[in-house]
Design goal:
The protein is α/β, with parallel strands linked by helices and 348 residues long. It contains ten helices and 17 strands.
């Protein structure tokens, strides 16, 4: 049996759907926390549903009965509103993962897949005059002057490159730190138990069922929600920030591929999960406006201090080692997403 923690959420429910389609017997453990779920989500009747929090050892123990492999998606996501979010991130993500992994060790379960994130890298990879480099956080003075690209030592803009799993890690906020801690916990668990752990570093996930109004939602959801309200999407900086937007159904298929990998391997391994194709944030806004018939995007020049400029994935490791490949192209995915239903408004 497959246990999906957070299986009632945006990505978790897509994994559940894909697993059921593949013939897996599925159990879901989800707390249904109100800042994630706007009302009670629909649970497929074929799923054995357990309501509980991953920090609750008793609930986790019940959920693990007869389970062979765990796909861990339960987490507090997003970059947070301010530092007062820190205890919730650490509790939900780090403590929750530790409780879950301890229960796996006690139950003799040796296969574990979890959601990680591109945010563990901080800024993306760049090429400068002296070769590959990782720039520090951008300065407010440069951003105020409209110099959005990270600069080389000679003052010229650095050239962005695809980032791979061996790049240095530089988590720059509490959420990023908590996701990296989850990876380290999984590595420790694998070494201690002889199990296999795959940490999937999701890039910008989008698709039907995204939350529409949470402050932790991704940029694609924020643009989509603006259009639904009859407003123009507001694009920060100059709209040329490079990202890798990957459809939620491709993320689900990557998780199923990782589940098969944990059945063949031991140890811990990280994998980027992206589309492999670079697009800008401005292009996302344009696609969603075009396919929804909404207002054209407005590029504001505003910025958020601490945002990264460019980060795009090399997913070669996942393709070669997991045998996975994304199947939904950018325009087709955005066309679907432009009019697809979003999750109901969450409680504030």
């Amino acid at each position: 049996m497959l246990l999906v923690t957070g299986g009632a959420g945006f990505i978790g429910s897509a994994i559940v759907d894909a697993a059921l389609e593949r013939g897996h017997e599925v159990r879901v453990l989800d707390s249904l926390r109100p800042d994630v779920h706007g009302g009670a989500p629909t649970i497929d009747p074929r799923v054995d549903f357990v309501r509980g929090d991953v920090r609750d050892a008793d609930a986790v123990a019940r959920a693990l009965e007869s389970v062979d492999v765990v796909c861990h998606q339960a987490a507090k996501v997003g970059l947070g509103v301010d530092f007062s979010d820190a205890p919730d991130y650490v509790g939900s993500n780090e403590l929750g993962t530790a409780v879950l992994l301890a229960a796996l060790a006690n139950a003799g379960i040796r296969r574990f897949v979890q959601a990680s994130s591109m945010v563990v890298y901080g800024e993306g990879s760049y090429i400068g005059a002296d070769g590959p480099t990782r720039p520090p956080a951008r300065r407010a003075a440069d951003l105020d002057a409209g110099r959005f690209d990270p600069l080389d030592v000679d003052g010229s803009p650095l050239r962005p490159a695809l980032i791979d799993e061996d790049a240095p890690l530089d988590p720059r906020n509490v959420y990023a730190i908590s996701k990296l801690s989850q990876e380290y916990l999984a590595t420790s668990w694998a070494r201690s138990t002889g199990g296999a752990a795959a940490s999937l570093r999701y890039h910008n996930v989008y698709g039907p069922g995204m939350p529409q109004n949470t402050p932790y939602a991704g940029v694609a959801s924020l643009f989509r929600s603006s259009l639904e309200r009859g407003e123009a999407p507001r694009v920060f900086e100059d709209g040329r920030q490079r990202r890798d937007f990957v459809h939620v159904r491709d993320v689900a298929s990557a998780n199923l591929a990782a589940i098969e990998w944990t059945g063949r391997a031991d140890g811990s391994r990280a994998f980027n999960v992206g589309s492999g194709v670079v697009h800008t944030i401005g292009e996302v806004a344009e696609q969603l406006s075009e396919h929804s018939g909404g207002a054209a995007p407005v590029v504001t020049g505003e910025y958020r201090l601490g945002d990264v400029r460019h980060i795009t994935a090399s997913s070669e490791r996942a393709m070669s080692e997991l045998g996975w490949a994304p199947s939904i192209g950018f325009e087709a995915g955005m066309r679907e997403f432009a009019t697809a239903p979003l999750r109901a408004a969450v409680q504030r």
